[in-house]
Amino acid sequence: MDWLYNEFKQTGKDYASQEEVEIYDPSHDDFRNIQQEIAHAESWIIPVPNASILDIGCGTGSFSIHFAKNCRKVYAIDISSPMLSFARAKSVLENLDNIDFIHGGYLNYELPDNSIHGVISSLSLHHLPDFWKEKALERIFSVLKPAGKLYLHDVVIPNEFPEKAIQEFIDLQGKRGGNFLREDTLIHFKEEFSTFDWIVQTMLKNVGFQVREITTRDRVLRTYLCEKPLEP
Ligand SMILES: C[S@@+](CC[C@H](N)C(=O)[O-])C[C@H]1O[C@@H](n2cnc3c(N)ncnc32)[C@H](O)[C@@H]1O
């Protein structure tokens, strides 16, 4: 397909920059409680010893590393080689050898259909334009086992008063993390592809997921707990 979207081109924030990679964890600590997010993911994708997990857009690897402690295998995929190296170094410090770090993306990985117990997609799906988001979700659906779980967390635009929600979030981020986080959030909305909640929900349903729970923080940070049905 010679019109396949080039997902390896960084859009918005340049996560291929070593400087961005090194500042990522401390800057995110200013606005999110990653341990709480991981606990939420784990309450949905319950780790079991023989499970295989896919963490797509893994970044610095916080979810991958946590799940690897209680699962057989984690596939940690990202388009950014510096992110993967950073995540790999963190996993070595934890003596983990069951994470496969893969340079790839939502539209470019090969895993067998019906082979994955749970998928984590945290703050990364918005890097794709909408058509490609749905293609990415189709691929995730295919690799999940029946009854497999998807934890999808992202910046999503509310259907009601979207401009107000975006502006308030930008201002809030400025209060939390100063100019750095304000700029980061501006770039997010100016250059990346966060979309409406109704579009995300429609895509999840189109693909075949059952959406079991939706939670929202700061009006734009939304988590969708989704399940692949047992029967097609
Ligand atoms: C904001 S970070 C999120 C990292 C991590 N999941 C988290 O929750 O902190 C976004 C990550 O998605 C990666 N990314 C961007 N486009 C991608 C794509 N098409 N496929 C996979 N990863 C992608 C970026 O390189 C970056 O590491």
Structure description:
This protein has 232 residues and is α/β, with parallel strands linked by helices. The protein has a single domain (18-227), classed as 3-Layer(aba) Sandwich (Rossmann fold), CATH 3.40.50.150. The protein is 42% helix and 22% strand. It contains 7 helices and 7 strands; from the N terminus they run H-H-E-H-E-H-E-E-H-E-H-H-E-E. The chain has helices at residues 18-28, 34-44, 62-68, 81-93, 130-143, 162-191, 197-207; strands at 52-56, 73-78, 99-103, 116-122, 144-155, 210-217, 221-227. The protein has a 7-stranded mixed β-sheet with strand order 3-2-1-4-5-7-6, sandwiched between helices. Helix 3 links the parallel strand 1 (52-56) and strand 2. The radius of gyration is 17 Å and the shape is globular. 37% of the residues are buried. Residues 7, 15, 56-59, 77-80, 83, 105-106, 122-124, 127-128 line the site of S-adenosylmethionine.
